[in-house]
């Protein structure tokens, strides 16, 4: 009898996670359809996504301005501090050098 109960519980668990996965995929699909590109407040053109020291940032191609999402500044600073420890370079110069591609 215990084996039957275990199989029933496993089937219910699999059904639950299957339903949750379908719901998550549906939410992602809906979000993707609704997602519009972020526009630069300076030029009104779509922002370009770039990777800066391992963090994806949004950059205006025209003005060179960057926009960071929540937590990205902290990630950049942490990456720069780690680079300073490894390379002995100043993290602030390394940060701005990455922004200007120098």
Structure description:
With 102 residues, the protein is mainly alpha-helical. The chain has two domains: 35 residues; 52 residues, no CATH class. It is built from three helices and three strands, in the order H-E-E-E-H-H. A three-stranded antiparallel sheet has the order 1-2-3. Helix 2 packs across helix 3. It is elongated. The model has no long low-confidence stretch (mean pLDDT 78).
Number of helices: 3
Structural class determined from secondary elements: mainly alpha
What's the count of strands?
A: 3
**3D shape:** elongated
Notable characteristics:
mainly alpha; 2 domains; single chain; 3 helices; 12% strand; 102 residues
Task: Set out the fold topology.
Blueprint: H1 2-34, E1 48-52, E2 55-59, E3 66-67, H2 72-87, H3 91-99
Antiparallel strand pairs: 1-2, 2-3
How do you describe this structure in short?
The protein has helices at residues 2-34, 72-87, 91-99, and strands at residues 48-52, 55-59, 66-67. By secondary structure, it is mainly α.
């Amino acid at each position: 009898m215990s084996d039957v109960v275990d199989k029933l519980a496993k089937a219910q668990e699999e059904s639950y996670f299957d339903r949750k996965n379908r719901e998550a995929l549906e939410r992602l699909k809906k979000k993707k359809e609704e997602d519009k590109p972020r526009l630069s407040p300076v030029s009104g053109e779509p922002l370009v996504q770039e990777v800066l020291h391992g963090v994806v940032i949004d950059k205006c191609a025209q003005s060179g301005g960057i926009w960071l999402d929540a937590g990205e500044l902290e990630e950049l600073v942490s990456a720069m501090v780690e680079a300073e420890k490894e390379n002995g370079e100043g993290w602030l110069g390394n940060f701005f050098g990455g922004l200007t591609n120098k």
